[in-house]
Amino acid sequence: MFVDINLLPKKEPKNVVFLLSTVIVTAMAAIAAAVFYVLIDRAETQIDSLEKELKQTQALQAIEQQKLADMQSVKEIEELDKTVQWAKDYPLKMVPLLRNMTALLPERGFIMNFSYAEDGTVTVSVQFDTSEQAAYYLKRLSDAKFIADVQLKSLSAVNANEESDEQRTTEERVVPRYLAQYEMHVDKQALEEKEKQP
Known about the structure:
Elements: H1 16-89, H2 94-104, E1 110-116, E2 121-128, H3 131-143, E3 147-158, E4 177-186, H4 188-196
Antiparallel strand pairs: 1-2, 2-4, 3-4
Coiled coil: 40-67
Protein name: Type IV pilus assembly protein PilN
Transmembrane segments: 16-40
C-alpha cells in the first residue's frame, strides 16, 4: 500500500466566478469601447459632411449675393444711363433762350412771366406800350430760327395805376400797357447752334 503524503499546503481551488466575471467585464468594456468608437467615428463623419455642406452653401450664397450685387449694379448703371439720356434730351437751357428772346424785344418790352412745360411748350407774358409792339414781337419770334412755332394767345390792355379812369382828370390819364401772352415751341438744336456762333 501506498501512502501519499503531501506536505505542501493545499491549493485553494481557483475561483471560477471571479475569473468569469473579469472576462465578462473586460468583454463588456471592449464592446462598449468599440460601440463608443463607432459612434464617435459616425459623429465625426457626420460633422465633416455637415461642414462640407455648410461650405458649399456658403459658397452658393456668396455666388448668389455676387449675382444680386451685379444685377443691382447693372440696374443702377441702366438707371444712370436713362437719367443721362434724359438730361441730354429733356432740359432746355433757359439762359440762352431768354437771352435770345429778350434780344428780339422792342425797347419798351418787358417779360413779365415765363414758364416751360415738359412737352417743350414755352409760355411767356410780355408787357408792351402799344399793341403794334406786340404784333412786331410776334413777327420777330416767328422769323427766329430757334423758335419752331409761335402763337399769340391773348392780348389785353392793363392800367398801370390802380385808380379808376373816372377818378382821374383828363391831364392825369395814363396810357394803358398791353400784356401779350405767347405760346411757342423751341427748336433746341437751332438754339444750341445759335449759341455756338460768335
